[in-house]
Amino acid sequence: MFKGLGQMASLVKQAQEMQGKMQAVREGLRRLKVEGSAGGGMVTIEMTGEQQVVACRIEKSLMESGDCEMLEDLVVTAVNQASEKARQASMQEMQKLTGGVDLSAFGDTLSKLGLGG
After folding, report:
1. For 6, what's the count of Cα atoms within 13 Å in the CB-facing half-sphere?
2. DSSP category for residue 104
3. Pick from 3, 19, 55, 73: CA 20 to 30 A from residue 67's CA?
4. Are 42 and 58 in contact (CB under 8 A)?
């Protein structure tokens, strides 16, 4: 009976350690910044590792051109590029945490847990 309690305590300790490591990964992703750009740098998006947009820079000449459709397309492209970089960074951090195990198949689950993916 007591042997079972010791194993349970060990599992709880391991779970707590993993939770602490995951919190550290989340903090690191919150501080991480990635950029996506389009139109030769005319539109640049800065995003955190948690895929939160923190900056959007658009060259003045692009704004003055009046071509709204092109501007919209460039913003979408830059956001998607930054998002992909953030997703890749998130997966790399999670692989470090899991000892290199590829978690790409669990991307949706990780997203629901707030861990990117």
Report:
1. 3
2. G
3. 55
4. yes
The Cβ of residue 107 has, within 10 Å, a number of other Cβ atoms equal to 16
By the 8 A CB rule, do 46 and 82 touch?
yes
Provide the 8-state DSSP code for 52.
-
What CATH number does the domain located at 2-112 have? 3.30.1310.10
* Tens digit of each residue's pLDDT (9 = 90 or more) over 98-114: 776 665 666 566 566 65
Question: Domain-by-domain residue ranges, the chain?
Answer: 2-112
User: For residue 82, how far is the Cα from the chain centroid?
Assistant: 9
Considering the entire predicted model, what is its pTM?
A: 0.68
E strand map for the chain: 33-38, 43-48, 53-58
